[in-house]
Amino acid sequence: MSDPLHRIADAVADVTESNVVAVLTSLGLQRDRQPAKKALRTPLPPPGAPSGVSSNVEWV
Fold first, then answer.
1. Which pLDDT value is given to residue 1?
2. What average pLDDT does the structure give for the chain?
3. Alpha-carbon distance values, 44 to 2, 4, 47 (Å)
4. The pLDDT value given to residue 11
5. What are the residues whose beta carbons fall under 8 Å from the beta carbon of 9, sequence distance 6 or more?
6. Strand, coil or helix: what is 5?
7. pLDDT at position 31, please?
8. d(CA 7, CA 12)
9. Which of 15, 17, 33, 60 is most buried, taking the most CB atoms under 10 A from its CB?
10. Are the beta carbons of 51 and 45 closer than 8 angstroms?
């Protein structure tokens, strides 16, 4: 492991969960933050169903 990684590991070795929460809260993290809404996606057609899409691709 590189020296910078050793220093980071040493720095966080004795950090408790309550310390992490306090630091993140002071940095503006909202504890009850809602997760991002899942984006709507167009569903794929069922397997074997004709899609009406044609493609002229030549595989090389």
1. 64
2. 78
3. 46, 47, 9
4. 81
5. 1
6. helix
7. 61
8. 9
9. 15
10. yes
Closest CA to 17 of 31, 3, 1: 31
Q: What is the pLDDT of residues 33-50, one digit of tens each?
A: 666 778 888 887 777 767
- On the 0-12 / 13-18 / 19+ scale of CB atoms within 10 A, 37 is exposed
Residue with tokens 């595989």: 59
CA distance 44 to 49: 10
Using alpha carbons, select from 32, 33, 12, 8 the residue that is nearest to residue 23. Answer: 12
Residue 31: partners with Cβ closer than 8 Å, 6 or more residues away? 21, 25
CA–CA distance, 18 with 24 (Å, rounded to integer): 10
Tell me which amino acid residue 58 is.
E
Q: Identity (one letter) of the amino acid at 45? A: P
Structure tokens at 17: 């969960």
Instruction: Report pLDDT for 30.
Output: 65
